[in-house]
User: Fold this.
Amino acid sequence: MNFRFWIEESYILNPQSKIQNPKSLLSIIPILRQNVNISLTKFNSIVYTLTVMLKIGVLVSGNGSNLQAIIDAIEAGKVSATIRIVISDKNNAYALVRAQKHGIKTLFLDPKESKTREEYDRRLVAHLKKEGVELVVLAGFMRILSPYFIKAYKSKIMNIHPALLPSFPGLHGQRQALDYGVKISGATIHFVDEGCDTGPIILQAAVKVEDNDTEETLSARILEQEHKIYSLAIQLYAEGKLEVIGRKVTIRQK
Assistant:
């Protein structure tokens, strides 16, 4: 999300922060960082753009290659977001190590400590809310979210699936595609609803299925596309370009 402002006689960025002169412009950054992550770009001597960084929380269960791709995209300046926390239901998930290497807060939340799925999800939501998370990103999270979680972050949860939905939902989408004999498979980014891989589709990438493909080789090529389109979907969300109308997701061009 970008905000452009001009330095005039009264330098006001928001009701709480007044800038007395252009040289003190950068002095507001520590104040703003209490609530948002920002980057500041100078266009010329009087026009600046303030970018508010989307706060995301990532839920993981395994290796975390999609998490790594998102981290890399953020650090490269391709995604206007900051990862506030990475939470896993598996204490040995390598995704936690990936996050820690980049100084990102991590948490193992043991499902065994909750009696029901909703009780576990209430704990999840509490941690995400505590970190100010605005968008939840599922990156290989192997639990089905409860209606409580879906309601708490309605239209604010993204998931990735290794098939072209609505074909081959559920586990082992790549294997399902091979068994069915399709010629084109791929990856899908979608918002999460209460069904299994049934939420509104945001982006898709097609991958040709070769005659000699195995589940492993097809999975590897699909994963390459996953890494590309997940970061793109998050950036579109950060820019406020995604609009959900019924089952359709519209991408605003401006």
